Predict the structure.
Amino acid sequence: MQNLAIALHGGAGTITPASMTPELEKAYKQALSYALNQSYQVLEKGGSALDAVELAVVLLEDSPLFNAGRGSVFTKEGKHEMDAAMMCGKTLEAGAVAGIRSIRNPVRLTRAILEHSDHVFLSGYGAEEFARKYKIDFAPEEYFYDQHRYQQWREVRDTDIFMLDHTEERKFGTVGAVARDENGDLAAATSTGGMTNKNYNRIGDSPVIGSGTYANNKTCAISCTGHGEFFIRAVVAYDVSCLMEYKGYTLQEACEEVVMDKLVKFGGEGGLIAVDSKGELALPFNSEGMYRACRSSGKEGRVAIYKD
């Protein structure tokens, strides 16, 4: 079991010690650590990278701490619209959904699309119809209700303001995971509830293959978190892969070029997690903090929130 590796994130943005209570910081770290350990065990037992990233994202979707699945923020209409994507680095097959409601774990639906559909990207009611066909779990509206997020939405629901997650500070509440398994296969998955008070069925970068999510065994697997409009325009995930494939950059060099230079120059804030074909990991971000965790063969797991 050489070069096993997994990394996961729970969002990025203005995340500082001053903005966190000790109790909340502990809760975030425990949730990240649990998802990391459970998904790494999948790899240790010979499971696929796809299995590992799916489980990691499911566990983060199940936590109300993160803006995905159960913790998804409220839209302008007071509803929840979730986006997600998954990609297999071995086959370049992918599954993605946008604007779905009532799906308990959107990432499970992306896996079903990847494996059972000739399509890549489904949205709205059609995606939900596909979910029923493949017995993906639904959940009632109250399952997605969080009092704190509801209160934050009430403060802006009668305005044209949208918020980058659930506080007045800048937080991008996406979750995601990338992994390399014992066969050398890579995979990536990303899931989000989008922006508080978003209108017009807005869709961010998370479900867009090549922007928020990408995996290719030749290069790397990427899951992004940030201000989605900028990540779409910069085609961030694929840009990292291209720098590696066509210019011979290392994973770290490519990530630094895209996240710390290209994005910064035109106002893009956030970060990403990445793993390459050798099992090397990179977790760069240009914001104040990023909820993140990683583990690889021969190394202890690491969980962090703030800048090092």
